[in-house]
Amino acid sequence: MTQNNWDEKLKESMERRMLQPSSTSWDKLAERLEDEKRRKRKKYLSAISIAASVVGLFLAVNVMLLNDDVEVGEQKIVKSPVVNNSDETYNGGTKSQLETSKETPKNPISNSIAKKSEIDTYVIKETQSVVKSSTLSEDKNLTELSHSVDKTDFVEDSFQVADNTQNIEEQQYGVSENETENLLKIAQREIAFSAIQERHNNVDAHALLREVETDLEQSFREKIFESLKSGYQTVKTAVVKRNN
Amino acid sequence: MLYETHAPKMLSVCRYYVKDLQKAEEVMLNGFFKAFTNLKNFKNEGSFEGWLRKIMVREAISFLRQVRHIEFSVDEYLEPPQGNNIDSEIELDALQGYIDDLPEGYKVVFVMYVIEGYKHTEIADILNISVGTSKSQLFKARQILQGRIQQTNKVSHDTK
Q: If phi over 0 gives left and psi between -120 and 50 gives alpha, with beta otherwise, what is residue A201?
């Protein structure tokens, strides 16, 4: 306790003392505080400028990237060619052209069939000639037709067609245009004859014409194929009969 | 306003540690500069003077470390001398002179313990010494001071 008292007394004595600072001490302190304030402001401004430059750079890069994306997007927009397939209605030239264009050019039959307009008009002419001949004198012409289109004539014609087909097979090439025309001609005659025979002497010229027209309405390709098919069947039958 | 109020006291505090008055004033200005630039750190947990005083003590110790190496002699702890009284007639300047004459290590520990009121653990932490070293330094400081005061009292009594 004595020591503590001594310490307390010493402390009280020392605490009583006050020393006055010099007159310039405050000026020195104020100047140091101003310098510190200026330094902090500079630091703050430099930080702000750095942040602003970073943000500006970021925005510029974004704008450039967006512009590049827009350009690339525009370039990617490619105008595809418009394919007009609206011509669905039958047009003797157009639709058959589209159909035949799909077929391989190496097919000789298709090449021969490609001249469909000529064959088409030829068939029309043939059928019209048959119709005309029937309309001149109905009964008389019918009988004449029935006699004229004799079976023997028909057989002879079928033999002729068979010979032609044999020639084709020997040649190993497709049917020529003339041969195709002949086949069609024969097929049309047969069709007309069968129609006349089925009607039991009751032939209507206009009905015939209408039938022909309806037949024409079918696709030319289908028509050709059907005619070829029927002709082939006929030839085959004739060949078999001849062989027998 | 704060400076005018607390500057005399703070200069006295710095004077405890630094013998030269001009250098003590520089230490005080350094202390005030740090206090004003870190006013936001004052959390109103104690008095402003107490907070300011702590800053001054640390600035003074930093100054002493920069100027000269503070030596702490490692001696055995001895019982303090008894029956020494401080004569009120001893002038404060003389007392300050006695403290100034102490070795640096003794003086710093003595002032921190006796005048500033730091505990030995706090002194050891601030000065980076052991608690035992702090106690021995204090003892030595007291010994010397009490001897000087006794001598002064004896002389004054003799002259009377």
A: left
ipTM: 0.77
DSSP-derived secondary structure letter, B90: S
DSSP string, A103-126: S-TT-HHHHHHH-HHHHHHHHHHH
Is the model's pLDDT at A87 over the cut of 50? no
User: Cα separation of B16 and B27, whole Å?
Assistant: 12
Distance in Å, alpha carbon of A19 to nearest chain B alpha carbon: 5
| B28 shares contact with chain A (CB less than 8 Å) | yes
**Amino acid of residue B148:** R
pLDDT at B143 over 60: yes
Residues of chain B neighbouring A28 (CB-CB closer than 8 A): 29
* pLDDT at residue A3 is higher than 80: no
Length, in residues, of chain B: 160
Mention every residue, 6+ apart, whose C-beta is less than 8 A from residue A162: A235, A238, A239, A242
User: Which residue of chain B is at minimal alpha-carbon distance from A11?
Assistant: B115
Q: Give the separation between CA B62 and CA B57, rounded to whole angstroms.
A: 9
Higher pLDDT, A134 or B158: B158
Per-position b or e across A177-188, b if 16+ CB within 10 A of its CB: eebbbbbbbbbb
CA dist A116 and A102 (Å) reads 15
Residue A87 · residue A94 · CB < 8 Å: yes
The C-alpha torsion from B86 through B61 and B65 to B107, rounded to 10°, is 10
Spell out which residues of chain B touch residue A13, defining contact as CB-CB under 8 Å. Answer: 86, 88, 90, 92, 95
- Give residue A121's pLDDT: 62
pLDDT in tens, A196-241: 666 655 667 777 777 777 766 666 778 788 888 888 888 888 888 8
CB–CB of A25/B25 below 8 Å? yes
pLDDT in tens, B62-111: 998 887 766 666 554 444 455 445 555 557 778 888 888 888 899 999 99
Compute the nearest-CA separation of A2 from chain B (Å). Answer: 7
pLDDT averaged over every residue in chain A: 71
Cα separations (Å) of B58 from A32, A93, A201, B13, B141?
20, 111, 141, 11, 20
A-chain residues within 8 Å CB-CB of B11?
19-21
